[in-house]
């Protein structure tokens, strides 16, 4: 008998939660069908209905990571959004750009854990051309969102129009990713306050 749609969806949610817990505890290096099955108190045979091989599991894990990142709380951005209504300038421009970038940095234990998983995913993605292309597309979409905030700041006269928004966004993304790596490897040298200070200095130079 074919499982009801509701049962299938519930199982997918259970699988997603188990994949995330394994990623959080062991990173991509410890992500295996056996580890996910153990997390679910299930058999690896059950998981083969969803993942015929390790690569399918890795691709799914990257999607889970992206969804989790998109859905996580963003206090800095939410604070800016709470400061005004769309169209009045309070939710756009440089303030919004800064807030979005702050929320991407490992300023809290939760964000640090998420960023560790992201950095761990790079090696996995680079080892597979298809996964690498999918990861490149994720970062392209991120640059596109950053470029929108840069364009708003340029329109409001807060950033120079000397360079196209897309070019500025690429440089901004590179700076933030580099700061993430430094903060993860040397948290004592790059506490939250210093990360914010370095970001503010970078944005001021723009």
From TrEMBL:
Chain residues forming the annotated DNA-binding region: 32-51
Any Pfam family hit: TetR_C_6
Keyword annotations from UniProtKB, A to Z: DNA-binding, Repressor, Transcription, Transcription regulation
Residues of the HTH tetR-type domain: 9-69
SUPFAM superfamilies: Homeodomain-like, Tetracyclin repressor-like, C-terminal domain
Gene Ontology MF term list: DNA-binding transcription factor activity; transcription cis-regulatory region binding
Protein name: TetR family transcriptional regulator
